[in-house]
Structure formats: structure tokens, C-alpha cells
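Methods — Computational structure assignment.
A single polypeptide chain was analysed. Its primary sequence is given first, followed by the predicted tertiary structure written as C-alpha cells.
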Amino acid sequence: MARNILVVEDDQNIANLIRMYLEKEGFEVRHAADGAQAIEQFNAKKPDMMLLDIMLPVMDGWSVCAKVRETSKLPIIMLTAKSEVYDRIQGLEMGADDYLVKPFEMKELIARINAVLRRTEIPEDTKKRLAFDKLIINLDSYELIVDGQRVDTPPKELELLYHLASSPNHVYTRNQLLDEVWGFDYFGDSRTVDVHIKRLREKVENVSDEWELKTVWGVGYKFELK
């Protein structure tokens, strides 16, 4: 079955160009021209991915992303004319899986879509569950249980925490984590890791005295068992 991608873009020419290339690659494409339409389309039929422009009429891309994240872990790639670091980090902090700065090559867009879809797929034969004091990381169900409570966590955050906790006290550099968690085909930079670590700390910090998600200054990060 063809993957369905919702393109949220108010520039009709750009939207048509994206549709043409995606349909050539075998994707089904739906289009929303503003943020309100994007939410309507998302609720009407859940897509497999959303390509989300930031500067939109009615409701901007940040608001759309936040609304979608209330109920879904849908893969989202932000499309933006802004190249400032703050805008890219804000997108990641709000739950986007990747970002692409306009103008971009269609080949790069296709590569990023395929990379994000591969990263967010849950393997059928996954048998991965780690348990520590007041912490359960379960990749079977993609759940994070903190002090007995289920905490909503985007897939990539959970995979990052699982990867660190799978090798307690092992220090990983940012580049190692990008290669091993995001994959060699990821187009982002090392600040992506910092953003995800920050969001994980908000969920798990000071929960237990027996472990800690720790920064090793000048090197990277580790899951420390005390």
C-alpha cells in the first residue's frame, strides 16, 4: 500500500511541484493550504507523514505541530524559509523529526522522507525492554514508564534513551549517537542530539538515585548507573 503524505504548504506552485515528485516516487499525496486545513485533513485520515511549512495562514506550522503532537507520533518534516539555528531547534523541540530549509532540491526532500520513514518504523520482531529503578524503556510498545506513569515520548527520543541505557556507563559522542540512532543517512547536525537529551531530561531527571542521564563535558553523553 502506498504511503500517504500530507503536504501543508500555502504556495500552490511549491505544493504542486512536491506532489509531482512524490507521486513519481509512488507516494499518495494530499494537500492543505493553511494550518486549519492541515488539522482537518489530519483528523479526517491519518497520513503516514506530514511535510509542514512554518509560515502558514490561519495557524502557523509551530501550532500545527504542537496540535498533532497532542495525540500522535506522526513523522513530521518542517519546511521553512528560515535558516537560523533557533528556528531549527524550535522545530525539533516541538517534536518535529527533521527540517529542510527552502529552497531545497527535490532529491534531498525524497531522501529525507525515506530516511525519516525508515527511522520511525517499528520492526515487527522487536524484543526490546529495559528496566531500571522507577524506569522502564519498552521498544516493543514504544512506551516510557517513569515512576509508574506512562510518559508520552516521541519515537526518536525513546530510541536515544534506549541506546544509551543499553550500554550503561558507556560514553557516546554526539556523532556516534547520530550514526547509531539516527543512521548514516541523517542530514542533521549534532545539536539534534542536544535537543533530544534536553527533552529526555525533562521527563526523567531526579526520578531515581540509582541512575542518571549524564553529560560528559567535551565528549558527549552516557546513561550512568551508580
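Note: The domain at 4-120 is CATH 3.40.50.2300 (Rossmann fold).
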